[in-house]
Amino acid sequence: MDRYDTLVIGAGVAGLTAARLLTKAGHRVVVLEARDHVGGRVRTERANGLVTDLGASWIHGIADSPVAAAAEACGMRTVEFTVGGCQADSRPIAYYGPDGVRLDDAAQLNFVEDIRALDAALVDVIAASAVDASYRDVTDEALATFGWSEDRVQRVREYLEHRSEEQYGARIEDLAAHGLDDDQIEGDEVVFPDGYDALPESLAEGLDVRLEHIVSRVEWSGHGVVTSTNRGRLVAAQAVVTVPVGVLQSAEFAIEPPLPEPVAGALSRLAMNDFEKVFLRFPKKFWDDDVYAIRQQGPQGRWWHSWYDLTRLHGTPTLMTFAAGRGATETRGWDEQSVVDSVMTQLRRLFGDLATKPTSVTITDWHADPFARGSYAYMTVGSSTDDHDVLATPIGGVLHLAGEATWTDDPATVTGAMMSGHRAAENILGRAVAFNEIWASSGP
Q1: Which residues contact 106 (CB under 8 A, 6 or more apart)?
Q2: Which domain holds residue 19?
Q3: Is the pLDDT of residue 442 over 50?
């Protein structure tokens, strides 16, 4: 049986980054990928002349971003599309009140100012919160300090619920109080009209990547690592495991001996989210040209409350919305037509007969993907921001966990995945490695 220097499990951006740097350093590396393609949760669909990023879509802040630098080095075309997370006014937004009528400028400004006041108050409340506090707990505590009318409070409370779901795919009561501490974006945000998958494909060039190798067991000891796959066993001195949190927690992926503390504890306090994208393409636009997003307030927006205009990416009138948190769990198992009917009911409530039937629809299903089990990880109640980095604690000098969930500053992002893969490579090599070594050339 051949023995390698390093086995990398998972050919997403984290795994490919680690493999690339280790290979450049002269290590004999094999990347094992369960799917029939590289990229992991960076997945681009091309059909009928349309390009759709089903997983990762944005670089959230290109300032000093290694992903932005890598994309530029790969010659990837970008379009500025600054979302700023689920913010109240990061770009022109058309708000519709609970009655389905668009808010005038004064009413919208008042609402935005309420959000800003609440966010300012949250800083101290979150800092003083108990370890078992949820995002619901701290936002309700902050809201109670204002003395606003119930209707005014309810509009802000809805917004906070939607923020929790849109950014982390988690119900507000399930997300830790510190769950949005990473909500800082520096610089413009960009998307990739030609597809995000060009990045992992470029990173994989020249590497020994073995597709459709499903790893079911990782055994580690002071002597190294043995992996069991559907195509046999492989042995190496070390391993970098980059599978998502949902796979790490599943019975189908065993690590023996089990993960020790503090790694096991950190893993237990993270969970995969409920977050899917719904893309609707129309024969013509029925919404305003001067807005990038449409949002509705009130109980009708319980599931479908925000739509983002992606028309300028490809010229096809397109709205994207999210089935997130409650919307994802309560519509799970619905067929495509049922989801479309539910979404269009809300759009017709706002736009009437102008909201025509979509010509094509794409709905993701990351929760059902056995190699993902969700879109990305979030901090459950009782967790702390340190749990991300703790999850990456080297184990026995031979086992290293990496991936978006293992990077505190930018979890749930491609940036976090790339940074974690770089860290794993540095830990194995025992020295610093310049970031630009990741993309210094087209080959390893």
Answers
A1: none
A2: 3-42+195-271+376-438
A3: no
> Longest Cα pair distance anywhere in the chain, in angstroms?
72
Is the model's pLDDT at 443 over the cut of 60? no
- The per-residue pLDDT for range 159-215, each reduced to its tens digit, is 999 999 999 999 999 999 999 875 555 677 889 999 999 999 999 999 999 999 999
Closest CA to 403 of 386, 415, 385, 387: 415
How much is the average pLDDT of 12-35? 98
Place of tokens 């989801």: 339
Give the tens place of pLDDT for each residue, 286-326. 999 888 899 999 999 999 999 999 998 889 999 999 999 99
Question: Rounded distance, CA 289 to CA 291, Å?
Answer: 6
Q: Are residues 243 and 233 in contact, defined by beta-carbon separation less than 8 angstroms?
A: no
Q: Provide the CATH number for the domain around residue 434.
A: 3.50.50.60
Asked if residue 266 belongs to a domain, the reply is yes
User: Distance between alpha carbon 95 and the CA centroid of its chain, in Å?
Assistant: 25
Task: Report pTM.
Answer: 0.94
Go through 90-112 and write b for each residue having 16 or more CB atoms within 10 A of its CB, e for each that does not. eeebbbbbeebebbeeeebeebb
- The candidate with the shortest Cα–Cα distance to 248, out of 368, 364, 366, 377, is 377
Torsion angle of C-alpha atoms 84, 90, 94, 95, degrees rounded to 10: 80
Place of tokens 């990547």: 209
Structure tokens at 355: 């909201």
CB 42, CB 198: distance < 8 Å: no
Q: Helix, strand, or coil here: 345?
A: helix
Written as one string, the DSSP assignment of 166-235 is: HHHSS-TTTBBTTTTTT----S--EE-TT-TTHHHHHHHTTS-EEET--EEEEEEETTEEEEEETTEEEE
How much is the pLDDT for 85? Answer: 56
Cα–Cα distance, 169 to 167 (Å, whole number): 6
| Residue 325, both tokens | 């948190």
Number of domains in the chain: 1
- Assigned domain for 69 exists: no
Q: Is the predicted pLDDT of residue 143 greater than 50, yes or no?
A: yes
The reply to whether 226 falls in a domain is: yes
Angle (CA) 9 421 253, round 5°: 25
Q: Which of 399, 404, 396 is nearest to 8 (CA)?
A: 399
Contact between residue 300 and residue 346 where contact means Cβ atoms under 8 Å apart: yes
- 57 inside domain: no
